[in-house]
Design a protein that fits this description.
heterodimer, A: alpha+beta, 12-stranded mixed sheet, 16 helices, 20 strands, B: 269 residues, mainly alpha, 73% helix
Chain lengths: 523, 269
């Protein structure tokens, strides 16, 4: 009798514990490994071990989609392979585009040609010197490769390449301010080398050593690097798709650095072991509205939502206060284009919001659905807070979490949605991507924003070669989006990075990269 | 048949009764609004907030009251679907055997072979993600095979009993035979199966929330709350503790009832 009672109670407790396992969504195998390593070596030993051997273990949440840089699309892959590959130019942490494999860049006055001087003494990771044939091969691969997947749309303005042994002149059919940013993404690869996918070779400060799919990748310092050499000898990336695994890895000493953590996750870390660095994700998080769908086809309704949503409340409730409020489709890292005054264009005003709703014919509010990708907890949490805030003006919102695939297909692809919370980003150094997508006929304008004035300014902005003029036009576009309340703009989310004490040199970039070369152990 | 209440049954009924009362109260009244976010993030348990507050500053006690109701009703309707369909399938296959048995049980096997997540996704794509009942339908489908198998065995073992043969010879129709003569005798197997199924449904509901079916934020359900709480175990351990304890209590209570029923059956036998 007694035994049976005990058995039931144990079973009940066990079943409840199972749950906690369920939440991880079947990523146990990935997290199991580092836990073992952690158990095998005590944290202290591990720490001095990494420090003594001058290496670092970094936890990342997803595997690499491709090691061939011309085929990688995932932001998480570009973020890391930034250390392995370089173009003729590359991004610097201040947002400028600086020479890399080219030592000098000259732009013709008419903007119709660029001349690159090949830097002397640049070597590939396999020891071969970089020659002009490699540069031409690399650019042609992205310009007119047989496989369209490798092509960059922004390179379609190229008319011809002219080169001798040390200089390359690229002629364009029309001036383009996005051209240099596109050249940045033409990674210089050895001509004709066809094993990039398995044994990538580039010119960056780190060279590829090995990779185990879904488990880890190892990089080592490239001794013959042309620029300032990296300080670390070796960097290991451990793939832990379970977010809890990343935190546990840090706590146990198996990992030294993890980026893109939430404030709840960093709260679990011991402050005497870790430094929490705060950067920004460089994305525009917003409640994106389907402007073609009732009731959001009415500008007054959209404005009412803007007046009802207190951005700071969202940041405080869902992000523990970390995040920069935004008022338009641009973030502060693009300081040249970013118009800060738009952030406070709409301030919390429930009465005004109700009035606008009344004018628009919704005196008692309406019902709406916020579709969110369920694997992005920050967006789900934001939507949850929005439901509360919108209740104040009588709008009954419900959150509809869907899996990532469904979201991409239904919301982003087919535009079958009423509203959604997501973050839009720009993966090269230009602001164009953030604004171009709101043009009426643009393929990825998933919000169906349609404003003739906007289209006109946009066309003008994309035509002009003058940088100052283009900047002014971009700012006009931002204002247009805010005034017409295209979407309820929220924030640029904070990027919290946990760094083990003693590891120094972490630098934030306005693009999504993790620069390993300045990292070093102190002491 | 003498009705005897044993210790398990009594304890189970008391625990489940208390939870049921709490659920009933929660349906009409909670100390605070379960979705209001104005009580401060991660406040530890106190007299004003018995279970503390969560990451949005919501009162966990109010949410547990509401969430327990949601979880309970989802689990109940899921088991109802599973038990009903399972009993019908089990009765037909177990009693008649033959071709119907082969066809239905193979379909049953096919259903078992499907991972429940995939099955749930299928239901969502058919019913549409916004539908509140999709979780019940999806989970109900998942639960049919186990009920069907249990009931089939029971019906198969009963069909050659003398009283059944007797009834059949007297010209009792199949439907009446299955429902009036045989069904009451399967109760001793069905009831424990229902209680076990109920507990599984409570647990399955949590994983379904992740797929966007069933409970969606900001509504509360115990499963969803616990999966949320696991990421905040350092910042607010009380969140996981109180939510988890409530689930344990619910599962434990119903588990005891099931065990009590089985024990009573043994005594009767």
């Amino acid at each position: 009798m007694k035994k049976r009672f005990l058995a039931i109670s144990l079973a009940a407790a066990l079943i409840a514990m199972l749950f906690t396992g369920c939440g991880g969504q079947g990523t146990e195998p990935a997290s199991a490994k580092p836990a073992e390593t952690a158990a095998a070596e005590s944290p202290a030993v591990q720490q001095t071990g990494h420090m003594a051997s001058n290496e670092v273990a970094i936890g990342i949440a997803q595997d690499f989609d491709s090691l061939d840089p011309d085929y990688m699309t995932a932001a998480g892959t570009k973020e890391i392979l930034f250390n392995v590959f370089e173009g003729l130019v590359k991004p610097a942490s201040n947002g400028e585009i600086v020479p890399a494999v080219a030592s000098e860049i000259t732009k013709a006055d008419d903007g119709l040609s660029y001349t690159f001087t090949l830097r002397q003494g640049v070597r590939f990771h396999n020891g071969d010197p970089v020659e002009m044939k490699d540069v031409v091969y690399s650019i042609e691969r992205r310009w007119k490769d047989a496989d369209p997947a490798a092509q960059l749309a922004a390179l379609s303005v190229i008319e011809s390449l002219e080169h001798d042994d040390s200089t390359l002149t690229i002629r364009l059919s029309e001036p383009s301010n996005e051209f240099l940013a596109a050249v940045m993404n033409c990674y210089i690869l050895p001509a004709g080398y066809d094993s990039q996918e398995t044994a990538p070779v580039g010119t960056g400060p780190f060279r590829f050593v090995s990779r185990a799919v879904q488990d880890h990748m190892i990089l080592e310092r490239f001794e013959d690097y042309w620029g300032t050499p990296a300080k670390l000898d070796k960097v290991t990336f451990k793939i832990l798709e379970n977010a809890e695994g990343l935190v546990l890895g840090l706590q146990s000493g198996a990992l030294d650095l993890v980026a893109h953590l939430s404030s709840d996750q960093t709260a679990q870390l011991n402050k005497s072991d870790f430094e929490i660095a705060e950067g920004s994700m460089n994305l525009v998080q917003a409640l994106y509205l389907n402007n073609a769908e009732k009731p959001f086809d009415d500008v007054r309704v959209r404005q009412a939502l803007c007046y009802a949503v207190d951005k700071q409340a969202v940041i405080d409730l869902a992000f523990d206060g970390y995040g920069i409020p935004l008022g338009t489709s641009m973030f502060p890292s693009f300081s040249k284009y970013y118009d800060e005054s738009l952030t406070d264009y709409y301030t919390l005003d429930v009465e005004k919001a109700k009035e606008l709703l009344k004018e628009a014919g919704y005196p008692d509010g309406f019902e709406m659905t916020i579709t969110v990708p369920s694997n992005y907890t920050p967006h789900v949490n934001t939507a949850t807070v929005l439901v509360e805030l919108l209740r104040e003006i009588g709008v009954k919102a419900t959150v509809q979490p869907v899996d990532w695939g469904t979201w991409l297909e239904e919301v982003y692809g087919n535009r079958h949605f009423q509203s959604t919370v997501t973050g839009l980003t720009s993966d090269n150094m230009t602001a164009r991507k953030l604004l171009e997508r709101f043009g009426s006929d643009v393929g990825n304008n998933f919000t169906n924003y349609s404003n003739p004035e906007y289209d006109e300014i946009l066309a003008q902005a994309l035509r002009t070669a003058d940088d100052a003029q283009q900047t002014a036009l971009y700012r006009q576009l931002e204002r247009n989006l805010t005034e017409n309340a295209a979407n309820v703009y929220l924030q640029d989310m904070a990027d919290l990075v946990a760094v083990r004490k003693g590891l120094e040199g972490l630098t934030f970039y306005p693009v999504y990269v993790l620069d390993l070369s300045p990292l070093s152990w102190n002491g | 048949m003498k009705k005897k209440i044993n210790g398990y049954l009594l304890a189970g009924l008391i625990i489940t009764g208390i939870i049921l009362i709490a659920i009933l109260v929660g349906a009409f009244w909670t100390p605070y609004s379960p979705t209001a976010m104005k009580y401060g993030r991660f406040q530890p348990p106190s007299f004003s907030h018995l279970f503390g507050t969560d990451n949005f500053g919501r009162d966990i006690f109010s949410r547990v009251l509401k969430g327990a109701g949601t979880t309970f009703s989802i689990a109940l309707s899921t088991v109802a679907i599973g038990a009903l369909a399972g009993t019908v399938i089990g009765a037909v296959t177990g009693y008649f055997g033959g071709l119907a048995d082969d066809i239905l049980m193979r379909m049953n096997d096919a259903l078992t072979a499907f991972p429940s997540f995939l099955l749930a996704l299928l239901v969502v794509s058919l019913v549409g993600p916004g539908n509140k009942y999709s979780v019940v339908i999806a989970l109900g489908l998942v639960f049919i095979p186990s009920f069907a198998r249990v009931m089939r065995t029971e019906y198969a073992s009963l069909r050659n009993q003398n009283y059944v043969t007797g009834a059949r010879l007297m010209g009792v129709g199949s439907i009446r035979l299955l429902s009036v003569h045989l069904l009451p005798n399967t109760i001793r197997v069905l009831l424990p199966a229902v209680t076990i199924g109920f507990n599984n449904a409570v647990l399955a509901e949590a994983s379904m929330s992740f797929l966007g079916i069933g409970v969606t934020p900001p509504d509360a359900s115990l499963g969803y709350m616990l999966s949320e709480a696991q990421g905040m175990i350092a910042a607010g351990p009380w969140y996981a503790i109180f939510t988890g304890s409530t689930i344990v209590l619910l599962v434990f209570g119903v588990g005891l009832i099931g065990e009590g029923l089985q024990a009573r059956n043994r005594e009767v036998d």
